[in-house]
Amino acid sequence: MALIVAFWLSVLHLQRSAAEDRVDYRYEDYREDNGRIRIRTHGVGFEKELSSKITAKGLLVYDGISGATPTGEAPARGSKALPIASIEDIRRAASLNLDIRHGRHTTTPELSYSEESDYTSRGLSLTHSIDFNQKNTTLLLGAAHNFDSVGGGVLTDFQRKDTTDLLMGLNQLLSPATVLSVNLTLGYSDGYLNDPYRRATFLLPDSPDPIFSDPAAVNPLSDNRPHHRFKQVGLASLTQFIAPLNGSVEGGYRLYHDDWGIWASTVSLTWYQKIGKHLTLSPLFRYYYQGAADFYAPSFQGVSFDEYAGGTRVAFQDGVFVGFQGDPVFPSAGDESAFQILPVPARPSYFSADYRLSQLETITYGIGARVKLGEHFTLDVAWKRYEMHALDGVTSRSAYPSANVFTVGCGIWF
């Protein structure tokens, strides 16, 4: 459900203090350059006060994805064109939660569901907030679990994937114009964590026979990642209202680490500028840096035959493959001088050529506008530019996407 949350954050930001019953609609069009991937998303959210102590909130999201994406395989010898695979799918998702207030406590249970042709997710979460210090301080505790099923690609049956997250956060009103928020999330995933559509290429670069050195001639292997992942995420944000400018600034920093060896940092800055009584502009900038996973490489040394995963030697004569050590045709010790013998390294326990696990950076910038039309209606439009860049010096730059994101939406209060 992370996609739903990300999609809806911009809807909620300027409206999170509102208590009225409401319905919101949002359409988003994500377009990667060169026609690579396009995602069109429709979303409807609502908030309804059922009583003085209970408020219901819900989201419905429908999106379609189409285009092509790199498979992870290395390009053919002499080519810079990465192998790609076509994608076309529809995702339907929904979530429902209840804010149950009792004194200075608020308890929020939530159910979520997401479905596409090759992935199903069912989620449960429970958060509890406690107000202190005349509601100037709020402590937030939360737990969530997702029961996912992964299919498609190399899978013939759906595989289990489970994720548990624990959250502790604090919101502090530092002054009438300043709010500080900090939180820490610990997450653990286990089960099938591979991408069933990603593949990796194993090569012997020094092989005189192209059947081992030309990516177009070798059989790629399916993505093979660890079956568990433990992550730690820290987030801090500060919102400051600046009265002389009739605007506010929100700055945030996020630090991420997991036991796959990935460290990542995100810095974000958004300005909310009110112009008159009806218009708010919100330019934004976000920078993200990520180190590579321990088991990432654009290609790997070795061969794709499982029987030689532990390593061996291979013989060539006159540039032509003869056999592997142990084969009847492999030259004996006394005859090896007439052959070219190359070592075949052992296959690593885990490997992935998915560019999303490489060392990279992303830059996002854009601007949004909200127009208040009367007391009960708002109109939103936004544009964002998203750019991803390679930093490791070995992964093809063509693997990394850049995209324009267009958004339009509206909100109605009752």
What does this entry look like structurally?
The strands form four sheets. The chain has a 16-stranded antiparallel beta barrel with strand order 1-2-3-4-5-6-7-8-9-13-14-15-16-21-22-23. A three-stranded antiparallel β-sheet has the order 19-18-20, with no helix packed on it. A two-stranded antiparallel sheet has the order 10-12. The N terminus is likely disordered. It has 414 residues and is mainly beta. The chain has one domain: Porin. 4% of the residues lie in helices and 59% in strands.
Summarize the structure.
With 414 residues, the protein is mostly beta strands. Helix content is 4%, strand content 59%. The strands form four sheets. It has a 16-stranded antiparallel barrel. Strands 19-18-20 form a three-stranded antiparallel beta sheet, with no helix packed on it. A two-stranded antiparallel ribbon has the order 10-12.
Total strand segments:
23
Distance between the termini: 28 Å
Number of domains: 1
> How would a textbook summarize the main sheet?
16 strands, antiparallel, barrel
What is the radius of gyration? 26 Å
| Net shape | elongated
Residue windows where pLDDT falls under 50 for at least 5 positions: 1-18
The CATH superfamily appears as: monomeric porin ompg
The H-and-E topology, N to C, reads as: HEEEEEEEEEEEHEEEEEEEEEEEE
Strand order of the largest sheet: 1-2-3-4-5-6-7-8-9-13-14-15-16-21-22-23
Question: What is the C-level CATH assignment?
Answer: Mainly Beta
